[in-house]
Amino acid sequence: MAGQQQLWGGVECTVNRVYERYGDQIRLSGHENRPEDLERFAELGIRAIRYPLLWERISPEQPDQCDWEWTDRRLARLRELGIRVIAGLIHHGSGPHYTNLVDDSFAPGLAKHAQNVAERYPWITDWTPVNEPLTTARFSALYGHWYPHLRSEGDFWRALLNQIDATRLSMRAVSRINPAARLIQTDDLGRTYATAALREQATFDNMRRWAGWDLLCRKVNRDHPFWARIAGFGLEQRLEAILDDPCPPAVIGINHYLTSDRFLDHRLQRYPQHLHGGSEIQLYADVEAVRVLSPASQGLEGALREAWERYRLPLAVTEVHNGCTREEQLRWTAQAWDIASRLNDQNVPVEAVTIWSLLGSSGWNTLLTRPGLYEPGVWDVSSGAPRPTAMVPLLKALAASDERPIMATGEGWWQRQGRMAHPPVARPAPIAEHIGPPHDPGSARPLLICGATGTLGQAMARACSMRNIPFILTSRQQLDITDRSSIEAALDKLSPWAVVNTAGWVRVDEAEAEEDACLLANAHGAIALAQACDRRGIQTLSFSSDLVFDGFKGYPYVETDAVAPCNSYGRSKAAMETGIAQLAGDHLVIRTAAFFSPHDDFNFATAVVRSLERAEAVLAPDDLIVTPTYVPHLVTASLDLLIDGETGIWHLANGDALTWADFAKRIASYCEHDPAQVQAVPHQTMGWAAPRPANVALGTCRGPQLPSLLTALEHFAQHFRAERLENAA
């Protein structure tokens, strides 16, 4: 049966309420006003899509007032494209304002909505009336994160039963119109591990995770461990009604994330304060199991096996997503597909693997309680327009059983020793799990990084090492970009899949007296390297500078602005850009500015900190505006763009445009020094040989943006705080 599972897709479509505010992921992703997204989805080869026909969106004011305009157009197009619709009616929601999860009107109200939808679209066969009922009940009625913001076990059970009743009644209403209708019931499925002192809590959690499916499958009878507990909240008649009229799913939909498996530890001192919590009778730390257990938790494969053993019903992986660097997104998806294939080979039926967050998601780092970070999906919509990532060729390859992108191979961070964030805890497991799968470090073509001695080269190597991207970092002796024969020999010998050029001339003021040498390194050498790669079909990544601009624009420069350098260094970078732009292959050029890193003693920010530590005054210009760039953020985003196969010129900086003097003052504040030690001066007093443009703030018309400068400075300062603590010890 290997490879017979289908590829499904899903649009993050949560409409959840927090007090009086509704959050709508469809609007946040831009899919609300972009029907052409459906053509993009079809190109992946997906056979079905989890798609929103949400109660809150179709009947927001009154149950019988339905607005079908948005869904009519999109569902008609999905039918034309041959993509089966899996209809979602509530997605982490509590319904429109006239009901909520613990209201008696909720279940019959959703059933009425289901009837309306089925009458409008009688051809829809697959349904998920309520997405993740157990998870939604926990977040809304036990933890109080979402509306109606309740925090009691009785309210949790009532919210869960209401959603189960809503599912049963909805499927009854749909089946009267389409007798072939199937219920695909989703929920997050993880496992709780714990220290011996917390075994009872872990046992309870591991029973509760099945409660939604157990209710639908008629497993919650009077002998069930939870019957008396739920009945004790005055809900026995509700249990009896469900027992008398169950609604077993046609497919058990498993949503599993790297955070789904948890570990509970009574030894609070081993973990930071923000991980401390507990129940009414015990305090404990609740952490991601993957960050502490050795070997790691059972993961997705274990969750699927457990679900099959418990229900013996067909399975589907109904959400696959990993908010991480691009190669880790690829690996997580590829591994999920392979797990499904392996289980099908072993006669565990996994009908499909669903790629979730096709357009990404926003705010899950805050559990949707307030605005939060955007995580790219298969497309990155951070710039407003969908940009295909490396996930697109991977999914096309999976759907067609073709060769996968090279970065989809290798161990993910969840399989490497560096995943540990806390003191390891041994997990009893067969010896094979302790050893792990064999790994051949020479199996993948490497990424070649030129420039072993520079800040960017070292940072690239550090990032690749952490991200398990095979790489080779070359010095000038191994690959001299000013020597064409050296370039040819190195490329033929190493056979990289891509080349990152961080080599070149970096001394801006010295370039004024040595312009030919600067031009040789930054332009002629860089172009020769790109040309050699072009002939071999090898991608390249090169770095340019804000100094290609003259500073007269008056507001941030974007990628399409014309260059007009005012010094020798800027002219060398502009010449490099022009030469590479004439090549036909896949060549990416990142313009950046004023980069800083705690791992480099020769950048402005570190020099400021060292001077302040010595109680020395810092002189910084107050008449030159730049956009500082944090090197670790720059490297992460640059590698993601390279893996995505992006080409052309991109601007990457940490957002804020400010003078060097203001930058120095912010550094002082974040690193716990006195900003008054920074003296703002005209740049002409600095003794610089090279002319400087007045305002070379970088913006972008392409995206993505790096994290904020505030975030960058906080990360930068953490390094020096840790250094002080280490020195004090």
From TrEMBL:
Q: Which Pfam families match?
A: RmlD_sub_bind (PF04321)
Reactions that this protein is recorded to catalyse = dTDP-beta-L-rhamnose + NADP(+) = dTDP-4-dehydro-beta-L-rhamnose + NADPH + H(+)
Instruction: List, alphabetically, the InterPro entries matched.
Output: dTDP_dehydrorham_reduct, GH, NAD(P)-bd_dom_sf, RmlD-like-bd
User: EC number(s) of the enzyme?
Assistant: 1.1.1.133
Q: Which EC class, in a word?
A: oxidoreductase
Function recorded in the entry: Catalyzes the reduction of dTDP-6-deoxy-L-lyxo-4-hexulose to yield dTDP-L-rhamnose.
Q: Where does the source fall among the domains of life?
A: Bacteria
Q: What is the lineage of its organism?
A: Bacteria, Pseudomonadati, Pseudomonadota, Alphaproteobacteria, Sphingomonadales
Names of the cofactor(s):
Mg(2+)
Recorded hits in SUPFAM superfamilies, A to Z, give: (Trans)glycosidases, NAD(P)-binding Rossmann-fold domains
Q: Which UniProt keywords apply?
A: NADP, Oxidoreductase
Q: How is the cofactor bound?
A: Binds 1 Mg(2+) ion per monomer.
In what pathway does it function?
Carbohydrate biosynthesis; dTDP-L-rhamnose biosynthesis
Q: Which family does it belong to?
A: Belongs to the dTDP-4-dehydrorhamnose reductase family.
Query: Which organism's genome codes for this protein?
Result: Sphingobium tyrosinilyticum
The RmlD-like substrate binding domain is annotated at: 447-699
Q: What is this protein called?
A: dTDP-4-dehydrorhamnose reductase
